[in-house]
Design goal:
The chain is mostly beta strands and 881 residues long. The chain has one domain: Beta Barrel (Maltoporin, Chain A), CATH 2.40.170. Helix content is 9%, strand content 58%. It has eight helices and 48 strands. The longest helix has 26 residues, at 3-28.
Amino acid sequence: MTHSMYRRVRALLFVSVSALPCASWAQSAPPATDDAVEALVVTGARLANQRAIAAKRSDGRISDGVSADEVGSLPDFGFGEALQRVPGVALLMNNQRGEAQFATVRGLNSSYTLVTRDGVALPATEQTRRNVSLDVLPSSIATRVIVAKSLTPDMDANAIGGQIDFRTPSAFDARARAVSLRGDIGRYQNEPRARSNSPSGRLDGLFTGRFGPDERYGGVLAVSYFRRVSSSLDGSVSNYGYYGADGKTVPAASPQAASAIASPLRRQWYNYDNVRERVGVFGKLERRVGGLNAHLSGAVFEHENDEFRNDNLLISSGALKNVTPTSGTASSGTAQIDFDHFDQKRRIAFVDAGLDQRLGPRDRLTFSANYAVGTYKQTTLQDVYKTPSASSNFAYDYVVSPGGFPVFTPVNANIVYDPAQYRQSQYGTALDKNVERVTTLNLDYAHNMEAGDRGLGIKAGGKLRALRRKFDHAETYYEPIAAASAPTLASALGAQSFAPFNDRAARFLFVDPEAASANFQARSLAYRLQSDNLSQNIISDYRVAEKIYAGYLMTVYRSARWSATGGLRYERTELNVDAPTQSTNGSTTTYAWRESDSHYGKLLPSITLNYELTDRLRLRAAYSQALGRPDYKDVGSARVVSQKGLLLSITEGNPALKPRQSRNYDLSLEWYGDRETMVSAAVFHKAIRNEIFNATSEQTATIGGVELDATVTRPENLDRSAVTGLELNVVRSRFGFRSGPLAGLGASANLTLLRSDDTRVRMNDGSYRQLRGLIEAASVTGNVSLLYENGPFKGQLAYNRTGRMLWTVATDAAPNDRSIAASDVVDLQVSYRVRPSLTLVAQAKNLTNDRPGRLQGPDQELLKDVLDNGRSYFLGFAYRY
């Protein structure tokens, strides 16, 4: 059975398993009435499912979401994990080893996804992306998350995939006064290897209350603290060479590469020891009197990742010998051992004021003003040791199995693992700072637009979003004046050493950062600044100013059984980019800031139709046009050269990038059995122009008179692309067993299948080739959750699958494409209610010990990376008063 056939069979099995409970309910269980559901004491995930079903049913768009439980927060493993239970939503981890950082909707690139808070777009906290990092946001400040998959004219158009909007709590949501607390403490299976260990855990608090005459005033305070201490090991094969049956090399761009023998040319291990901390504070003051609602809110969310990264590298030099499909020999090689200390901080702060004034029984005017700041700051300490030159002392044999990680066996292990063989080649620090300041003003008028209104309704409004972003890079890297007298690794070798999980015969060497720093301070006169420090400090910087003017007009007509929403939205974007340029005349290099302006306006129509075929069966159809603006760094940054010993990478911006444009077609059929039962099926098609991707190619570059292999990355527009998908969702929080141990059993399941068509990329030689799919687009995503509730005991077992997704596209040779491998993760959560206000909770994450991987090669079957993150376990409590 081929791999593609296997995927299809597995997907069909997933659908069949999901559909079995539906058939059983339809045949044997009479529909539960709303009154019967009301009589039950509904808590936990069942209550959250009930609220999410009600929200989906009442929404005029095609949407899904998650809602708060009785404690007032998302009843799951975290903000990202809760989103992963939503149909069609997949998550990208922070470098595949941290928390969920970016969300993709319906398998589309995370750049297609707009993340908002109470309808207002948040500032980005990334150096290179327009996206919002989800790991900065604590889940305790979201009482409901709505994933809108079809667009209406009153929504921001920068959401081709969809919009994720999380709603903050209100003092008028529940009782006059309420307190809820959640906390846990736990450990990660992979403990730090190069730094001390300490506990992991979190503590969240939510306080709401109403006060004043007739309780017209309300207040909300949410606080959160999160800490994770863990370690990950990444085994990486950065490059492969291709050999024919005659033993001669085959270029990766040659058609013969598909049938050639793929041989690993470079093995690298990274050990990451991470301490991640997140602190969040959110507050809101509200006033409700007569027809006027007013609020003032503000928040500060900060996430810090303090990382010790050690890596060991072994590289072949020259052609390999004795190459077979499973083995080979490098008769000469080089090696490198590094240490990096990254201290990375992301921060979002905002203040928001709003008025909601009823002008009459059917007229409403709303205004909001928001000012937000998103920051990214990373300090880097880097220490590099490498062998002076290629040598037979670093020769190695290798063996590899299909799809497996190659095992390198040094011919002379005593030399390869001897610290005295490695001399320091680089030492220094770098600082990256990004600040994004955003002001957003919204004004909307609505007539006859409440949920229960019938007949014709009208809504119109406008928005101004003014953004300024500034990125600054500064580095101070040194190199020894005399390489032969540079300190050896022996003077900075850490005491720790271990054998990696994928090669027990190997030895991993650690750099002691304190010893390395002491060496440098004691011998500072023996070093000189690297020649490209000045150019890197200037050429990497950029400044961006962006203004978006938007206006819309929409109408809605509602009858007892059907409704139609349609209208037009116009968005004009004005972009100013200020970036340095480099000019060389003989031996003189000068830099000058060059300003460029661009603007474009788009008229974007949309229409949504809803029809209730029966009291429980609803049909929805939608058409919309949307756009996707390029990331700021893609249009703003100049050529940036990053050298780390023997490794060279070059990135550069592209001011000529065009915004993505999409025509979206959606059709959804939904059946609502009762408040805890729902089945839905949706099909969608998106025709996309000017999709943006990072083109990569392997080239050579001369730095300081030395020719090095370089990976060059530049954003480009695709010619065109299209994606078609099927989305299935089943929720049955309670199967309907009247008694016995299965009385509290329920389940939910969802599956999204995606197919990309006509996705072409222009190669370096001017030709075009078809891609397997869009960037970050998984062909299969799905989730199955089993729910159980029996008296005070509750449990949730969740399985999530994310299929393979394309990560980067190579424009020199298709085998140099890179993909993220499919993942299968199982999480478990159980709880016991000690008394009505107090519940004890235990949870385990990644029980399957899934190891994320990246792939490359002609058929994307060669293993590039495999990461061991391990399992984690937590004990905690939930309290509500």
